[in-house]
Design goal:
The structure is a homodimer.
Chain A: H1 2-13, H2 18-27, H3 30-43, H4 45-54, H5 61-66, H6 70-79, H7 82-90, H8 94-102, H9 106-116, H10 123-126, E1 133-134, H11 140-151, E2 160-164, E3 170-175, H12 176-181, H13 188-191, H14 205-215, E4 219-223, E5 229-234, H15 235-253, H16 266-293, H17 295-300, H18 303-332, H19 340-373, H20 378-407, H21 417-440
Parallel strand pairs in A: 1-2
Antiparallel strand pairs in A: 2-3, 4-5
Helix pairs in contact in A: 2-4, 3-4, 4-6, 7-9, 14-15, 16-21, 18-19, 18-20, 18-21, 19-20, 20-21
C-alpha cells in the first residue's frame, strides 16, 4: 500500500496541468479517483481543483469532491474558481451540498450560494464574481497597485479591469496593457473605455456565447437592471458553451434529447430516446396510412413497392440537406435574417433541379426494369414525376419549417428531421401511388 | 449626392464596433459596401478593417477590399491583423492579390505572403505573427518597457508575453500580470513558465481548437520543428473554428458538403449536393432490390407494403440517434477513447429495448389491421420481430460504423446517416419480407 502510494506520487509529479490529470481521472474507477484526490489535496490542491474543473460534467466530478473530508474539501474548493465551485456543488445531493458548504469559510460559502441561485444555463450560472475592479478617480500607478493586490492568486485574470462608481455601477473597462503603457499619473477616467457589450444575469448562455464570439471578448461583464457589476463570463466558459450547444443542435436535429449525456448509461438512453421513437412511430403510421389508401393499386402493380423506398428516401435526404443548411444559417446569423423567404425559394429551386437530375436516372432504371419484367413502361414516367415533385417538396419543407418556427420565436433546431422526413415520406407515397393509379390502371 | 454622403457619415458616427458595422455591410449590395468603406478609409481605417475582419467569409469581404484604391487599401490593411489580412488577400483573384500586395509596405507584404503560404485550415493559416517577445536575461522592469513598446497599436494582445532565446526558440511564457506583480529587478528567467502546449504550423485547425479548449488558453504558440516561435493562434479564431466545425459536422452527418456556404447561391448548392444525392440513389437502389427479391410475397400480402415504411423508418431513426450520440462522443474525447466496444454494446442494448417497446405497439396496430381486413394475424408477429431486430441492427450500426472509422484513423463524422439508414432500410425490408415469406405463405 505504501509502495503503491509512492509510485502514485511519483506518477503525479509528472503531471503539470489539470486537464491532463482530468483525462487520467476519467479513466479511473470512482474509488481510485478519490484516492488520487486525497493524496493531492494537502500538497497540491490547485492541481486537484483544476482537474475537477476540467473533467466532463458527465463524469460527475462533484461525486469525487463530495467524497473528501472537510479539510481536503476546504483546500480544494479554495483553489476552484467560484463559478466552477458553484456548478459542482449545485450538482450534489442536498446533504452533500450542505456538508461541503459547511466546510468552507463563511464568506466563500455565501458567495457560492449566491451563484448557485442563478439558472445553470444563464449568464449568472456561468459567471465568475472574482473580478478586478477600480474607481475612475485613481491614477494609472494606483490602479496598477490595485491590480497587483486584487489579481494575486486569482486564477482567471485576462488583463481586463472593470471600472465602477461608488454604487458598483459599471462605467467601462480598461486593459492592464493600457494602464502599463500610460503615464503613471494619468487618471483612470481618461483611460476607461465604454463597455463593448454587457449581459444580464438571466441572459441565456447561448446568447452570451453569440455576443462574446461576435465581439471577441476575453470576458464579458454581467450587470443587473441598474447597471451594477455582478460578475463576468470568461471566454473559456464560452468555448465550453459553444461545444455543448453544437452537440445539442445535432441531437435536436436527429431527435435525441439535449439531456442525453454522450457518456451516459443505457437505461438513461432508453428513457430519453423512447418518447421520440413513439412520436416517430405515429408519424410512420401516417406514412403507412397513405400506402394503405392505395393498397388496391399496389396489389395490381407490385413493382410500385420496389419504387417506394427510392422516392421516399431521396425526398427525405434532399429535405434533410435543405433543413441542415437552413437551420445553421438561422443559428449563425446574430441579427434576425433579412430575407428569409428567399431561402425558401432557393431551396425549392435546388430541390426541383436535383429532383429532375436524379429522377431522370431513376426513371431510366425503372424503364429497364419494366422492359425486363414486361411491366407497363409508363411506370418510368410515374417515377420521374414523383421524384421531381418529392424532392421539390423536400427542399421547400426543409427551408420553410425552420423559417416559420424562427418567425414564431421557436428554436428552429427543434424542426428535427423526423418531421421533414415524415412529410416527404407521405408526399412521396402519395405522388408515386396516386400518379400510378391515374396513369397505369 | 452630397446630402446622402452627409447622412451616411452621421449614421456611421453612431457605430462604435466593427462587428456592428459588419452586420450592416452584410445587408448592403456590393457597390454600397464599397461606398461605405471608401468614406471610412481615410477617417477611421481601424473601424473599416475591423468590419471587414468580422464579416462572414461567405459574404466575401475580400471583394469589397479589392474594390478600394491603393491608398485606401494601404490604410485599411495596416489596421488589419496579419492573419486576417492574409486570409482576405488569399481569397482574392491572383490579379487583385498582386495589386493589393503592391499597395502595402514591402515588409508587411512579405509577412502576409509568408502567412498565405500555409494551408488555410492549419495552425499556420490562422496564426498571427504579431506577438510580444522577450529574452530571459531582461528584468521585469525592462520587460514591461518592452511590452509597452511592442504592444503599442497591436490589436490582439491578451497579456501573454513569449520568452525566446537568441535563436528565437520558445523558452516559455510570462503574463503581463506576473511582470507587473513582480519586484521590478526580478529576472524574467525566474518568472517564465513552461509553455502549457504548443502546435506546429501544419497542425489541423480542429486539433488547435481542441488543445486551446482543453487548456483554456487565450493564445497558443505555433513553433517549427526546431522549437522556433513562428506565431500564435488566439482564442477568437478558435471560437470561429469551433463554430465552423460544428456546422461542418452537422453537414457531414446529413451528407451536405463542408464546402457549402450557408448563404451560398442555388447553383452552388445543386453542384455540391447532387453528387451526394446520386450516392443516395445508389443506396436506395440496393434497398429497392431487397424489396424486388420478395416481389412474389408482396403481391400475395399487399399489407406488407403498408408495414414497410414503418419498419424501415423506425430502424433508420434509432440508428441515426445512436450514430449522433456516438459521433459526438468520439468528437468530444480528446484522448482516444478508452473502451469503445462498450459503446457498441450499450447501443445494441438500447436498440433492442426500444425495438421491443415500439415493436409491441406496432404489432398491436398490425393485429387490429389484420382483424379489420381479415388478413393473417401472424402478420402481427412478423411486425414485432422485424421491428425488434431492425432497431437492434440500427443501434449496432450507429455505434459500430463510427467506432471502426475512428480506429482506422478516418473522421467518424463521415459516417453520415445515409449509410446507416441504407443499412437499416435493407435489413428492415429483408426482415419484414423474409419473415413474412416464412411465416405467412
Amino acid at each position: 500500500e505504501g509502495g503503491s502510494e509512492a509510485r502514485l506520487r511519483a506518477f503525479l509529479d509528472g503531471i503539470q496541468h489539470g486537464s491532463d490529470l482530468a483525462d487520467l481521472l476519467e479513466q479511473l474507477e470512482d474509488e481510485d479517483r478519490v484516492r488520487v484526490l486525497q493524496l493531492l489535496a494537502p500538497d497540491d490542491p490547485a492541481l486537484a481543483a483544476e482537474a475537477l474543473a476540467e473533467m466532463e460534467p458527465d463524469e460527475h466530478p462533484e461525486d469525487s469532491l463530495a467524497a473528501l473530508n472537510a479539510v481536503q474539501i476546504a483546500a480544494v474548493v479554495a483553489e476552484l474558481s467560484d463559478d466552477d465551485a458553484a456548478d459542482m456543488i449545485g450538482e450534489m445531493a442536498p446533504a452533500d451540498r450542505d456538508r461541503v458548504l459547511a466546510a468552507l469559510p463563511h464568506q466563500d460559502a455565501g458567495d457560492i450560494r449566491d451563484l448557485m441561485a442563478y439558472d445553470e444555463e444563464s449568464a449568472g450560472g456561468i459567471m465568475t464574481a472574482e473580478l478586478v475592479t477600480l474607481r475612475v478617480n485613481q491614477t494609472a500607478a494606483q490602479a496598477i497597485d490595485e491590480v497587483r493586490r486584487q489579481a494575486h492568486g486569482m486564477d482567471e485574470f485576462y488583463g481586463i479591469v472593470f471600472v465602477v462608481d461608488e454604487r458598483e455601477v459599471l462605467q467601462g473597462t480598461v486593459s492592464l496593457r493600457d494602464l502599463v503603457t500610460a503615464d503613471p499619473s494619468t487618471s483612470v477616467r481618461e483611460l476607461v473605455q465604454d463597455p463593448i457589450a454587457v449581459v444580464l444575469p438571466e441572459t441565456d448562455q447561448e446568447e452570451v456565447g453569440r455576443v462574446v464570439s461576435k465581439y471577441n471578448l476575453t470576458i464579458i461583464p454581467v450587470v443587473d437592471g441598474g447597471g451594477r457589476l455582478l460578475g463576468g463570463v470568461t471566454f473559456d466558459d464560452v468555448i465550453d458553451i459553444i461545444e455543448a450547444e453544437s452537440t445539442e443542435d445535432l441531437f435536436k436535429f436527429v431527435s435525441v434529447s439535449a439531456e442525453e449525456e454522450v457518456r451516459g448509461g443505457w437505461v438513461d438512453a432508453v428513457r430519453l430516446r423512447l418518447p421520440w421513437l413513439f412520436i416517430n412511430l405515429l408519424t410512420a403510421f401516417s406514412a403507412a396510412s397513405v400506402v394503405y389508401l392505395f393498397e388496391d393499386t399496389l396489389s395490381k402493380v407490385s413493382l410500385l413497392a420496389v419504387c417506394m423506398p427510392v422516392i421516399a428516401g431521396m425526398g427525405g435526404n434532399a429535405g434533410t440537406q435543405a433543413l441542415a443548411v437552413t437551420v445553421r444559417r438561422l443559428a449563425l446569423s446574430s441579427e434576425r435574417s433579412g430575407t428569409p423567404w428567399n431561402v425558401v425559394g432557393k431551396e425549392l429551386l435546388v430541390g426541383a433541379t436535383n429532383g429532375l437530375a436524379t429522377g431522370l436516372v431513376a426513371s431510366g432504371a425503372a424503364f429497364l426494369l419494366c422492359m425486363a419484367t414486361g411491366a407497363n413502361v409508363l411506370l418510368a414516367v410515374v417515377v420521374l414525376l414523383a421524384m421531381l415533385l418529392n424532392l421539390t417538396v423536400g427542399g421547400f419543407a426543409g427551408a420553410f419549417v425552420p423559417t416559420v418556427l424562427e418567425r414564431l420565436g421557436v428554436d428552429p433546431a427543434v424542426a428535427s428531421s423526423i418531421f421533414v422526413t415524415t412529410f416527404t415520406d407521405m408526399c412521396g407515397f402519395f405522388l408515386l401511388l396516386g400518379l400510378a393509379t391515374e396513369l397505369l390502371l
